[in-house]
Design brief:
- The protein has 256 residues and is an alpha/beta fold.
- It has 9 helices and 10 strands.
- A 6-stranded mixed beta sheet has the order 6-7-8-3-9-10, sandwiched between helices. It has a 4-stranded antiparallel beta sheet with strand order 2-1-4-5, with helices on one face.
- Helix 5 packs parallel to helix 6.
Length: 256
Amino acid sequence: MAQNQPFVDIRHAQKSFGKVEVLKDISLTVERGQIVGIIGSSGSGKSTLLRAINDLDPLSGGEIWLDGVQVNKKLPHRQYEAHINALRQQVGMVFQHFNLFPHLSVRDNVTMAPMLLKNLSRAEANRLAEEQLDHVGMLERIEYYPSQLSGGQKQRVAIARALAMKPKLMLFDEATSALDPELVEEVNLVMKKLAEQHMTMIIVTHEMDFAASVCDRVLFMDKGVVVEEGPPQVIFKNPTQPRTREFLRKHIEGAS
């Protein structure tokens, strides 16, 4: 990768679902080791933008580059499948719902992808799973099944599963919004630990306090555009755009 090239480079991203334009000419960059938070109302395009980064929601127009490689290349089907599968191994994604395999133990949920996609031996994958589960405080639950775990524990396993692929980039799509309030902090602590280790992360979140304490930059999205972006102390304390101020006022009033 060229030294002057951003780690994540989104160029004129546009996405439509039928006649509804969800993303409208969005351009932004993320540097290696940076933590970027994305906030905004439901339907503003936050999750669509996040999912476009690994081509889960392919763009209608524009380009996305990761570490000097274009993600959304136009390729013949077989070449595209090989290309995108290789890229997705470099991107960990944690969704609002945990997407664990209910019939597999915690151990097997975490070891499956490294064994299938990286051809690790079972012994190697087990060591990796134990390391990552210990990292998120779930090693003692390694033989449990998802039905035996709380929501916060399931989400921590989902994070360990993503980290087991040794990704360059972590994407979090409202990772705590499906959790009971008392379980949110245990997941946030794991994400804060990743931030301390300078993992590159893009985090869609509705938790303003978390974004303010963890993120290097915060983007406010509304109706498919980035209305305002900047350091959290500016976005949360002194936003320049009226729409940002309106959103934050309503969010703070709603949370109080």
